Write a sequence for this structure.
């Protein structure tokens, strides 16, 4: 993992984040960027200790701004301070992404010829909470219907992203979980290939520590899926209309010259 930075957005993490970061560094991570996205004041000690670990940088939002904004903050910092590295790997702070799986994504990214690496969970396992199963199956189906591409796990937070794609991804809209969906829509429209690798399906206490709001965040994600499709459709229609109008004007001009 010497060629990549690990990015971890964190909101009210547990002490386990300290061990997680240390284990990632022990496995060879070159740099870890943790974003404190407005966590409770009583948890400041976790980020203070993280900041003392060599190879770990903590960036702080004084108030919660959402996962999308936390990722953007980290991407911007990476592009400004780690130009020698080849890309980033995003991981969650709640323990759902094992150190072993982060290493798998890093290896896949290293061996790929470009494109985005997605760590894919198996939603058929019995430990998957019902709301997670329904939410992911719904967004995966919609993504396939609207954009013609089958992704097994549209909501995975474990992703490998090459540096050359980050500048454009940084400019995408979205401040919360819908930002991750925007990445997928952008990649599909730009013909950036996806590589999916299987990772462990880890849920703890029925995913009680998740900050994903089942109603509000689901509406944001679904709205982004539909609006992304409609925007693309309107652009296509407009282009076709311009082409037709131009062709008609050309015919009229030629008829005028002939007369």
């Amino acid at each position: 993992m010497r060629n990549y930075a690990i990015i971890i957005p964190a909101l009210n993490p547990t002490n386990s984040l300290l061990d997680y970061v240390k284990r990632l560094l022990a496995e060879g991570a070159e740099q870890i960027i943790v974003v404190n996205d407005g966590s409770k004041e009583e948890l400041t000690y976790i980020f203070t200790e993280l900041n003392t670990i060599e190879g770990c940088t903590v960036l702080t939002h004084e108030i919660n701004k959402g996962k999308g904004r936390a990722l953007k903050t980290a991407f911007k910092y990476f592009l400004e301070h780690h130009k020698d590295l080849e890309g980033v790997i995003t991981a969650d702070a709640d323990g759902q992404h094992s150190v072993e799986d982060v290493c798998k994504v890093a290896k896949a990214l290293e061996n790929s010829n470009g494109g985005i690496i997605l760590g894919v969970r198996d939603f058929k396992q019995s430990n998957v909470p019902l709301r997670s199963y329904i939410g992911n199956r719904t967004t995966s189906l919609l993504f396939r219907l609207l954009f013609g591409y089958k992704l097994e796990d549209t909501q995975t937070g474990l992703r490998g992203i090459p540096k050359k794609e980050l500048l454009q991804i940084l400019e995408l809209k979205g401040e919360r979980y819908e930002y991750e969906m925007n990445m997928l829509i952008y990649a599909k429209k730009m013909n950036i290939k996806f590589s999916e690798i299987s990772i462990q399906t880890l849920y703890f206490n029925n995913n009680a520590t998740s900050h994903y709001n089942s109603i509000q965040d689901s509406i944001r994600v679904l709205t982004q899926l539909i609006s992304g499709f409609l925007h693309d459709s309107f652009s296509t229609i407009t282009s076709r209309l311009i082409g037709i109008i131009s062709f008609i004007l050309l015919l009229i001009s030629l008829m005028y010259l002939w007369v």
